[in-house]
Amino acid sequence: MMEIPSDTINIDVTARKWDWSFQYPNGAIDDKLHIPNNRAIRLRMRSEDVLHAFYVPAFRAKSDVVPGRVTEMWFQPIKEGEYDLFCAEYCGDQHSEMIKRRGVIVHDQAGYEEYLAKAVSPPKHPAAHGFWLYSRQGCKSCHSVEDGKKIVGPSFANSWGKSVQTSAGDEFKFDAQYVRESILAPQAKYRSGYENASKMPSYQGKFDEDELLALTTFLEWMSKPEFVAAVQDGTLDATEKESLGIQDEVEAEEGTEEAASADDGDAESENSDDA
Amino acid sequence: MSAVANSPTHSQEDSDNFLYHSKGFLSWALTLDHKRIGLMYLIGVMSAFFLAGMLALILRAELMTPTKMFLSNQQYNQVFTLHGAIMVFLFIIPSVPAALGNFLVPVMLGAKDVAFPRLNLSSFYLWVIGAIFFLSAMLYTGLDTGWTFYTPYSTTTQGPVVAATLGVFILGFSSIFTGLNFIVTINTMRPPGMAWFKMPLFLWATYATSIIQVLATPVLGITVLLLAAERVLHIGIFDPAYNGDPVTYQHFFWFYSHPAVYIMILPGMGIISELMSVHSHKSIFGYRFIAYSSVAIALFGFLVWGHHMFTSGMASVTTIIFSALTFTVSIPSAIKVFNWLATMYKGTVQLNTPMCYSLAFIFLFTIGGLTGLWLGALSTDRPLHDTYFVVAHFHYVMVGGTLVGFLGGVFHWWPKMTGKMFSELWGKISCAVIFVGFNLTFLPQFVLGSRGMPRRYARYVEEFQELHQLSTWGAFLLGFGLFIALGVIIHSLMRGKKAPPNPWGGATLEWQCASPPPYYNFENPPRVNDPYDYKPLEYRDAERGWEYVHPSAPTVPEPTPEPAKS
Fold this sequence. Notes:
The complex is a heterodimer of chains A (275) and B (566).
Chain A: E1 9-16, E2 19-23, E3 29-30, E4 33-36, E5 41-47, E6 52-56, E7 61-65, E8 71-75, E9 81-87, E10 100-107, H1 109-119, H2 126-136, E11 163-165, E12 171-173, H3 176-184, H4 209-221, H5 225-231, H6 238-244, H7 251-274
Parallel strand pairs in A: 1-5, 4-10
Antiparallel strand pairs in A: 1-2, 2-3, 5-8, 6-7, 6-9, 9-10, 11-12
Chain B: H1 10-16, H2 25-29, H3 34-62, H4 73-108, H5 117-142, H6 153-156, H7 161-188, H8 201-233, H9 246-280, H10 287-300, H11 316-344, H12 353-376, H13 378-384, H14 388-418, H15 424-450, H16 465-495, E1 537-539, E2 546-548
Antiparallel strand pairs in B: 1-2
Helix pairs in contact in B: 3-4, 3-5, 3-16, 4-5, 4-7, 4-8, 4-9, 4-14, 5-7, 7-8, 8-9, 8-10, 9-10, 9-11, 9-12, 9-14, 10-11, 11-12, 12-14, 12-15, 14-15, 15-16
């Protein structure tokens, strides 16, 4: 009854306050779940902070995500389309903001492979890369990119270079060192006014130096009004990148890489089939 | 010659009446009289209910639209936590046992008081202290853990979790004291002639409830202490950051809180057993089965806590065992429902206000119970767990069951407690409005839940809006109905006609003393009859109520003559 078929596609799920990220067999990370139709999907789920529950009503599938454990669930979609994803276990302030409208996308096999190939390669320019990480790694569920809009933590817009006050009363500058410290040890300095905000989990070990650099650049760019305007809608599309001068350099080269990573994706999923 | 023989003469009545025989604040605050303590509890739990009910209306109003109306996410979380915690710990658990039970257990036994009157008073004060502790902790900075205090959220959130858990701890002791008192009272103070199977069924239900209170509540005490220790000392049992396991907390918590569900519903069932029989003027059908089923529910209730955790990551064998055990609870519950229905068959059913509430109880409780089967079955629980389906299910049991039963009991024994009759017409109107309002509130929530609306959501996707609005209008109607009921009893206090000792024709002992009872309850030890034999009773008129016409009919041992009590 509960036995998991052997030829599943394994996807690692991380839940945190208040977002999901999904890691695919080829290493791509996204905040939405993309899956092929008519294949058994096995989710291995971890939580970084408190209890969450992965719930897709359309699939009648639900399982709690328990910190300190890896919980598994599996299901097999039978119809292509986009489905809502909910968190069903109370997890604090923004619990109901974990509604992910059309957060589960069921592709046909070709569409899934195409998606995987595209998702594995982040943008080249560090600012775009930083924004890409920001939208996929859960930053955006607490930090807005609109000026002055406070979700849980402070907004990222126009913070760079400003002088900030801690709750202890010290002043310091919002610079690369502070950004690095806040990502790796978020509780080291509390900004005044955020003492009662929910605690941010540490990203120690989750970002490598390149990614930290990308995020730092992204925050630096957040002091440019045109960049803020471009990312405000939550996406950074090709024309926006072009107008900012941060498009990925050589189109042709990217094309070949995409194809290459598509092959990788195939290989990976075949490997997991064998496993 | 008649039941009135046991009530004092008219001139005596006013001075001996328990409400007025001594006056002043201290005579109430330091009273050891179970009736006064019962009334104080009644006022206390009703105030708690009023507060938590208002919070429910705020929540429902916020849910009129999928986006923000007037509560931020954080405020919404605090309000639903307050609503749940106050309702559970301050209202439902003490409602029937502590308020009605305190009043009724000794008079139903023909006794003067409970076994330990001082323990009884201290249990009331523990309730007050616990309530103050709990409310001030929650209002001070805002508790937002939900009433379940699930770890690791509760060990990491900024709210006053420790103060609130200590409040729960104190309230737990209040509950244990009450339970202990009733167990000893029922065991030792039954009058001559009242064997176990001659007891009114309300006492059976109270006894079963008390067993759960005494056995399960200590586990809650341990759990909240461990939770506080985890939060303050990081002892590492519940919080994964210190190598604990959150699911362990859920096991601890539900080991109390599932039996607590039966603390909430069993006394309501006890009330209905009395009301069904009295207002049908027919002996209760299947007395022994109802009595045994109360005890069976109390015992099975200890074995099914795991069904709250089917999606929490338990081993699948464990979930199958818990699922199977869960279904056993439906057997004694169904026995009760069938016996109540059979009691009405060929009875002389009088649709008095309390009877209307009993019928509402049976209807609503049955829906609540049957929808529980979907949640007890593994495959259907998977999508339904933690959705509005669960919310609707337990509100059908807790509100449609316990609250409606409680109101029925309040109306049934109101003439006995206050000596005043109430407006039958408005009583029935209140019942009808509550019934319609309740169904309008919670039936749409079954649909919402089965379509995937998760619970504890301040915001939701717009497809659900219509059903949410329906539910909100229902909630306002329900609130309106409850205000009518409140109006009826307030009007009765001010203008009510004087109640006869036995206005409904009940055969249990409380109807043999005056309304309201004198502070010593019975002038002479009452005659112990079959509690469900209505043949010797006959209706006289509105002033005299029902009286015994065959005084010799059911006497069991001759009461030993003894000097009148001083």
